[in-house]
Design a protein that fits this description.
The structure holds 2 protein chains of 2 kinds. By secondary structure, chain A is mainly alpha-helical. Chain A is built from 10 helices and no strands. In chain B, helix 1 packs across helix 6 (141-171), helix 3 (67-88) crosses helix 4 (99-124) and helix 7 (183-194) packs antiparallel against helix 8. The chains are: A mainly alpha, B mainly alpha.
């Protein structure tokens, strides 16, 4: 139990790297698709809806497998620059996680945008503020505050999702835990240590989000 | 298309049975989850601190730890634990647990934690007056729960339970690591032998989409049924 701790802690770094990278890219992707969802053009709208439907309706495992095993099959891709990225399981995992969290984030942000009262936007307009500034200075800050609780859940779900990286040979926290279990046959001890690390991360994320919620709450 | 042919030449029938397996595991896991929820929801709502702690411990740990880790724990530790229990009763032979049971129980434990939260929320949002009125009318505890609380609770719980079902359905893809032949495992086998992973994994994605789509339609009907009178 004690000997496995440093190994698992080392693997946690990979888990955190995967998590932060995919959340960072996923946030932009989510914002992009949330804006598309609000577009009045039916094709753009349907396209964004289709994206979020497909990525929310299929297991993350399938998405990783398609990207890691599936895309390598396309001969053309192998000859392009993209192959440098796609042959690495690390980047494939990040791409899959980004696309997945992007779909959930776009839904969260969309509903946040839709709950903004029209009066606020109208007030901005009547003050003569340009549409662009209304969007960046009024709508986005309100939407971010609105979506904080749901986004906190999404971060925790994504943190648990990074465990799937272990299925494409990455040695993240779950990958190392599985390796130690299968070599030492001590599942319970390893589960306690690895599970404890995950729980600690959940605890930290939960409290950071709670703090942010309080800090940016409307009633001050 | 010939890859999906039924019979010996294609993978159609294999994938069809794999889909049935996924549905079977999901339904079993969901029922196991209800069983867990039935035990832990009262604990979470209990007046006693210790029981509260047990209930909270279950939901917090399971919802904070990756599903894959829980599956590995049961897959590697499950037969050991059962053999230990059996050895107390004087049975020392090797016991191997079926992959279906391991998978259904592992996913069931996970979905149970989510169901517990859903039921707790639903019960807590029922007006206190309903409990009191039932008590005043002298209805037995059993009758209170089945005739008054449960019908009201279900209406509130069904939309959230439908989310739990979707999560459970998608989580079953993780059991493929234990070797149970469901959609994901079958696609893995097919992809390996035909060297066409792109096609089979995409097809698996379509199957999952189909399952989520159909279940959404069915759940919507249930929702209408249980919100009669509102």
């Amino acid at each position: 139990m004690i000997t496995s701790f440093p190994k698992l802690l080392g693997a946690t770094v990979i888990t955190l790297k995967l998590l932060s990278a995919s959340l960072f890219f996923g946030l932009f992707l989510g914002l992009f698709f949330a804006i598309l969802r609000l577009n009045k053009n039916i094709f753009i709208n349907k396209f964004a809806y289709g994206y979020s439907y497909v990525f929310r309706g299929t297991p993350l495992l399938v998405q990783i497998f398609i990207i890691y095993f599936g895309l390598g099959q396309i001969e053309y891709l192998r000859s392009t620059v993209l192959w440098v990225v796609l042959k690495e399981p690390y980047w494939c995992a990040i791409i899959a996680f980004t696309l997945n969290t992007g779909a959930y984030t776009s839904e969260i942000l969309r509903s946040a945008f839709q709950t903004i009262k029209p009066g606020i936007i109208e007030a901005g307009k009547s003050l003569g503020i340009s549409n662009k500034i209304i969007f960046y200075k009024i709508q986005i800050p309100i939407a971010i505050r609105q979506s904080l609780p749901a986004y906190g859940n999404e971060i925790i779900l994504m943190m648990k999702g990074t465990s799937l990286a272990s299925t494409v040979t990455l040695m993240d926290l779950t990958g190392v835990a599985k390796y130690i279990i299968s070599t030492t046959f001590k599942p319970i001890e390893v589960f306690i240590v690895a599970g404890g690390i995950y729980l600690f991360m959940t605890f930290v994320i939960h409290n950071v989000i709670k703090y942010l919620e309080k800090k940016y709450s409307f009633q001050q | 298309m010939e890859l999906l042919a039924f019979g010996k030449t294609g993978w159609g029938d294999e994938l069809f049975y794999a889909t049935l397996m996924t549905v079977a595991v999901s339904v079993t896991a969901m029922l196991v989850g209800f069983l867990f929820a039935l035990i832990f929801t009262p604990l979470k709502l209990s007046k006693y601190k210790t029981l509260n702690f047990v209930g909270n411990f279950y939901t917090t740990v399971i919802r904070g730890v990756p599903e894959l880790l829980v599956i590995y724990l049961l897959f590697f530790g499950g037969s050991g634990a059962i053999m230990y229990v059996a050895s107390i009763f004087g049975y020392y032979e090797y016991i191997e647990i079926n992959a279906f049971i391991t998978g259904a129980v592992a996913i069931g434990i996970i979905s149970g934690a989510y169901s517990t939260e859903v039921f707790r929320g639903a019960i807590q949002s029922i007006d206190k007056g309903q409990f009191e009125a039932a008590k005043v009318l002298g209805i037995s505890k059993f009758g209170q729960f089945y005739k008054i609380i449960l019908p009201q609770m279900l209406r509130l719980a069904i939309p959230n339970l439908s989310n739990v079902w979707q999560i459970t359905l998608k989580d079953t893809s993780l059991i493929s690591v234990t070797g149970l032949v469901e959609i994901m495992r079958q696609s893995y086998i097919a992809a390996g032998s035909t060297r066409d992973p792109l096609f089979f994994y995409s097809f698996a994605a379509v199957l999952y989409l189909l399952l989520t789509y159909i279940s959404m339609k069915l759940i919507n009907k249930l929702e209408v049924k249980y919100s009669r009178g509102y």
